[in-house]
């Protein structure tokens, strides 16, 4: 029953040969300032915290131009996508999602008795807002938009999303997942939650800040809607560890790390895009930390090559065109990737 060996808690060290290009993680790890704050906070690990959460929410509110009451924090944004799903499904109904996209909440919605419309991307591989609008029914409760979209990296402009929100009845929740918005120069829609009371935005610390393992996400919405969501989160926000909160507060101030990540992400993206283009591989312009491309013109077994080289590299999406996604690593990792697979 008990493990024979002491578990190795340093997962990356244990598996140092594997290159992880499938989870859109931060290849530079976590901000050093955040790590320092996390170490310091370990001595508080035995205590329930009521102070950090307040400081964190204040900081998040300020950076998003909203009030604390417009925010709900949690251990990762996936949990909040699920929370919104549970909320909208109270009286069952219908939901609309683009395909492919980051629809982890889809099985929960169906399990809770909701029906769905799955809307394919348009021929430019953009989320098809027109078709999503046409799919609205009397009992539609939720429309999900991932912006930039995962797995394509495509970005809808603020204007496009705002026009869409305006065209939808205001009793339908529009959930905009902005997990990758920091990789763009486009402003979050967070400042619009009091204008459109059915707009909910999710954000995460997993990507830019490198907190995928530490777990922190938040949702921004109209005050009334947030108060309703809190009814489904019994001890609001208490699932986030003191250690993560201390790290997040420090991470937000570590401008040096943020700049390093963004500059390198763009550099690596340019390198990867030009590598694919030179080899005649079709890509979609990416506004995130990954690239979507087609294996249609690829000779050989791409996934076997990845496996043999111990590179974790995803799966295929869509029925036609063998589209797949690769996360952007460091320059060295992407050099190795190109050496191995192309
Ligand atoms: N939203 C999108 C679009 C994602 O790609 C991911 C993770 O890859 C998440 C949400 C989940 O992030 P978190 O780590 O905050 O749960």
UniProtKB/TrEMBL annotation:
This is Histidinol-phosphate aminotransferase. Gene3D superfamilies: Aspartate Aminotransferase, domain 1, Type I PLP-dependent aspartate aminotransferase-like (Major domain). Residues 18-336 form the Aminotransferase class I/classII large domain. InterPro entries: Aminotransferase_I/II_large, HistidinolP_aminotransfase, PyrdxlP-dep_Trfase, PyrdxlP-dep_Trfase_major, PyrdxlP-dep_Trfase_small, TAT_signal. Belongs to the class-II pyridoxal-phosphate-dependent aminotransferase family. Histidinol-phosphate aminotransferase subfamily. Keywords: Aminotransferase, Pyridoxal phosphate, Transferase. The lineage of its organism: Bacteria, Pseudomonadati, Bacteroidota, Flavobacteriia, Flavobacteriales. It comes from Epilithonimonas hungarica. One of its GO terms (molecular function) is pyridoxal phosphate binding.
